[in-house]
Amino acid sequence: MRNRTRDGLLLALGGFALLSTGDTLVKSMAGLWPGPAIAALRYIIGTIGLGTFLLWREGWAGFRMDHLGWHAARGFGVAFSATTFFTAVQIMPIAEATAISFTSPMVTALLAAALIGEPMRRETWIASLVAFAGVLIVLRPNFAAIGPAAVLPLFAACGMALLIIGNRAVLGRGSALAMQVNVAIFATLFLLVFTLMGHLSGIAMLHVGAPPWSVIGKSAAIAVTGSSAHALIYMATSRAGAATVAPMTYFQLIMAGFYGWLLFREHPDATALLGAAIIIGAGLFLWRAGRMTDEPQGTE
After folding, report:
1. pLDDT tens digits along 166-223
2. Does the pLDDT at position 237 exceed 90?
3. What is the DSSP letter of 103?
4. Is the confidence at residue 298, as pLDDT, over 80?
5. Count of other CB atoms within 10 angstroms of residue 228
6. How many CB atoms lie within 10 A of CB 200?
7. Distance between CA atoms of 158 and 172, rounded to whole angstroms?
8. What is the pLDDT of residues 27-36, one digit of tens each?
9. Which of 262, 221, 256, 213 is closest to 88 using CA atoms?
10. With 0-12 CB in 10 A as exposed, 13-18 as middle and 19+ as buried, what is 238?
11. Tens-place pLDDT, residues 152-169
12. How does DSSP assign 169-225, residue by residue?
């Protein structure tokens, strides 16, 4: 059991490190191609690759979708999250964008209460208020520098929250691979719409021209790292359990800070670090409260 837990944690660390690697590749393309277009190309490549693998493993039956509306909602959540986060990391420090996106567990709890009637515990309210206080602290310098676009990572957290809620609704309706392909199909469709909307908006940074070969290559690399990361995280949870693996997500922030310092000479100030620490603390508090609630109670 100890070996399975250790292996699970190592797999999770690898998965979250790959996610930060993909975000870093996105940032390296700032000014070369719009964030929504990069996200669309990444998902087109990923959907083709994963879909081919699913067809080989499960045949056409693997593409069957029950609860089509929830699959569409999952795809919209992924597309909205990718669009806003890919744009965010191109215009603000990657570590700070990542820190704000870690409000996702709290946003998930709030949306779950609103959409599917899950009860709101006192711990959830506390964690949410504390986390959003941390967000305001992180946003302070970025809002002054780039304006309302600084809240894009918070929108990304909302998209991920919608994905998580949708995952609960379709749980057990197919294999993990099929669920990944199904969400990628809808995400690709929505991303193409978002890319077209951005192109027609007249905003210069969202104009879509012919992509350089470097953008195509990096987008393909993001598709590989993203799909590999999710596979590693899934394998990690199957070995060590979701509750054990959950805190490892904050390794992604460490990697984001490291890449930002090494490659882009980004140096978050003390205020931003304080805000990030508050967000992480709120997430860990919510995680610990959830573990205590889920643990079986002893009998007298």
Report:
1. 888 887 888 889 989 999 999 999 999 999 999 999 999 999 999 999 999 999 999 9
2. no
3. T
4. no
5. 16
6. 11
7. 24
8. 999 999 999 9
9. 256
10. middle
11. 999 999 998 898 888 888
12. HTTTSS-HHHHHHHHHHHHHHHHHHHHHHHHHTT-GGG---PPPHHHHHHHHHHHHH
Joined tokens for residue 57: 């493993």
Distance CA 75, CA 77 (A): 5
The whole-number pLDDT of residue 67 equals 82
> 96 vs 27, 60, 66, 265, CA distance in Å?
13, 42, 38, 14
Cα 234 to Cα 14, 47, 56, 171, 261: the distances in Å are 12, 18, 20, 14, 29
Complete DSSP assignment for 108-146: HHHHHHHHH-----HHHHHHHHHHHHHHHHHHHHHHHHH
Backbone φ and ψ of 243, nearest 5°? -65, -35
Instruction: Say what the alpha-carbon torsion angle 101, 223, 203, 79 is, to the nearest 10 degrees.
Output: -60
> 9: which 2 tokens?
């944690």
Express each pLDDT in 20-74 by its tens digit.
999 999 999 999 999 999 999 999 999 999 999 999 999 999 998 888 899 999 9
Q: Would you say how long the chain is, in residues?
A: 300
Residue with tokens 């709290």: 106
Q: How far apart, in whole angstroms, are the C-alpha atoms of residue 88 and residue 155?
A: 10
Name, in order, each residue with C-beta under 8 angstroms of 51's C-beta and a sequence gap of 6 or more: 63, 181, 184, 185
Checking if the pLDDT of 296 tops 70, the result is no
Cα–Cα distance for residue pair 95/101, rounded to 1 Å? 10
